[in-house]
Design a protein that fits this description.
By secondary structure, this protein is an alpha/beta fold. 26% of the residues lie in helices and 24% in strands. The strands form three sheets. It has a seven-stranded parallel β-sheet, sandwiched between helices. The structure holds flavin-adenine dinucleotide. Flavin-adenine dinucleotide binds next to helix 7, helix 8, strand 14 and helix 9.
C-alpha cells in the first residue's frame, strides 16, 4: 500500500501552475489504480490556502502546508527543508512533483536526505497488478524505458505536458500548516530579484498549441539572388505574435547566429530543436525553410501533427517526417498565414 504525496508550490498570486495540476492528475490516477493507497497534498509558498482550495475536491486525505516569506522564491535550502518536513509528516512512500526547475533541482537532494530515490523527466505512471511503474525516455528521446523501484520513498518528477491536468471543482480545504523555522544557514542565499526577458521577447512557450520552426533557409539567397533576413524576422515574429506560437530552430540557423552572421536577432541555442537541442511537446508543429534532416526531426517526437513548408519536394520532411509538406516559398506562405491570422 502506497502513501502518495503530491508536492507543489503556490504561485506568486496564490494559484497553482498547470504543471502542478497535471501532476495532481497523475497522482489521482495512480491512487485510483492502487486500492488501499492514500493521497495527500503538500504545498509550499507565501500562502497556500488559495491553492489548496483550488484542488479541495481532489480527494486528498490531508493537505499539509509550509508557508511564509521564506518560501516565496525558489531557493534550494528553504525548498529542500520544506519538502523534507512535508514528506516526513506525510510518511510518504511515493512523492510526485512537477518537473519544473524549482523542484527538479531540489528533490533529488531531498530523496537523498530521506534515504529514498528520485527519478526525473517521468512521462507516464502505471499501477498494473498493484505495482508502480514509471516511464521515461533515454538517449535523447530515442528509447522509452519502464522501471520499478523497491526503495522508498520514491520521488517522481513528472514532465510538464505529459499528463492531462486535473479539472475538478474548487472548494474549501482544511490545511494543516506546519511551522518551519529555518536555521540561519538556510538563509545564506537571498533572492534579490528575477531577471527575465520582456514578455514580447519571450519566444519559447512550452504551453503553446503551435511550434513554429525556422530553418537556415530564411537567411539564404532567394530567387532574386538576395537574402531577406529582416523580412524573415518580421514574418516569423508576426506569426509568433498572432498565433501565440513557440519558436523552434534548426541547429544550422542558431549556429549561424553564433558566427556573427546576419540572422534572426531573437534566436538563441535555447530555441534549437533536435538531437543536440530540445524535444518539446506541442499539439502542432510547422517547419519553415528547414530541410527536415534526422538530427533535427528527432526533436519532433512529441509533436502530434507535423507540417512543413519547403521549396524542395525532396527535402527530409517528404520522407515520412511530416504529415503534410507544402512545396512552396515560405516567405509567401507565411505572409498569407499572418494576413489570415490578423
Ligand atoms: C551530431 C549532430 C547533431 C545535430 N543536432 C542537430 C539538432 O539538434 N538540431 C538540428 O536542427 N540539427 C542538428 N544537426 C544538423 C542537421 O543535420 C542539419 O544540418 C540541420 O538541421 C540543417 O538545418 P536547416 O534545415 O535549417 O538548414 P539547411 O539544410 O540549409 O536547409 C534549408 C532549407 O530551407 C529551404 N528553403 C530555402 N529557402 C526557402 C523558401 N523561400 N521557402 C521554403 N523553403 C526554403 C531549402 O530548400 C532547404 O531545404 C546535427 C548534426 C549532427 C552531425
Amino acid at each position: 500500500m502506497e502513501t502518495i504525496l503530491l508536492l507543489a508550490n503556490s504561485e506568486a498570486d496564490g494559484s497553482l501552475s498547470r504543471s502542478a495540476l497535471e501532476t495532481l492528475g497523475a497522482a489521482k490516477a495512480l491512487a485510483a489504480g492502487m486500492p488501499g493507497s492514500k493521497l495527500l497534498v503538500g504545498l509550499v509558498g507565501q500562502t497556500v490556502q488559495a491553492a489548496a482550495n483550488r484542488i479541495a475536491a481532489c480527494g486528498a486525505q490531508t493537505f499539509l502546508g509550509v508557508e511564509g516569506a521564506d518560501f516565496v522564491a525558489s531557493r534550494y535550502a528553504s525548498d529542500a527543508a520544506a519538502a523534507e518536513a512535508i514528506a516526513k509528516a506525510a510518511q510518504a512512500t511515493v512523492i510526485l512533483a512537477p518537473a519544473a526547475s524549482r523542484w527538479n533541482r531540489v528533490l533529488p537532494g531531498v530523496a537523498q536526505r530521506l534515504g529514498g530515490r528520485a527519478d526525473t523527466h517521468i512521462t507516464g505512471l502505471s499501477a498494473g497488478g498493484g505495482k508502480l511503474s514509471v516511464n521515461r525516455w533515454y538517449y535523447r528521446q530515442r528509447m522509452e524505458g519502464t522501471l520499478q523501484r523497491t526503495q522508498r520513498p520514491w520521488v517522481i518528477l513528472i514532465d510538464p505536458g505529459s499528463q492531462p491536468a486535473w479539472q475538478g471543482e474548487a472548494g474549501t480545504a482544511t490545511v494543516q500548516n506546519m511551522p518551519l523555522v529555518l536555521p540561519e544557514s538556510c538563509k545564506r542565499t537571498t533572492v534579490v530579484g528575477v531577471r527575465e526577458p520582456a514578455a514580447d521577447a519571450q519566444t519559447i512557450r512550452p504551453d503553446a498549441d503551435l511550434l513554429l520552426v525556422a530553418g537556415a533557409g530564411w537567411t539564404k539567397k532567394q530567387a532574386d539572388g538576395q537574402a531577406h533576413a529582416k523580412e524573415a524576422e518580421a514574418l516569423i515574429l508576426g506569426c509568433l505574435k498572432a498565433a501565440r506560437a513557440s519558436l523552434g530552430s534548426s541547429k544550422s540557423l542558431v549556429d549561424l547566429g553564433g558566427e556573427g552572421q546576419a540572422v534572426l536577432s531573437f534566436l538563441t541555442h535555447l530555441n534549437q530543436i533536435g538531437q543536440t537541442g530540445s524535444t518539446p511537446r506541442h499539439p502542432k508543429g510547422l517547419a519553415t525553410c528547414c530541410h527536415g534532416e534526422e538530427p533535427h526531426t528527432v526533436g519532433w517526437r512529441f509533436i502530434n501533427e507535423r507540417r512543413a513548408v519547403n521549396l524542395d519536394p525532396n527535402c527530409g520532411w517528404a520522407r515520412g517526417k511530416a504529415d503534410v509538406l507544402y512545396v512552396a516559398d515560405a516567405f509567401a506562405v507565411m505572409a498569407r498565414v499572418n494576413a489570415l491570422l490578423s
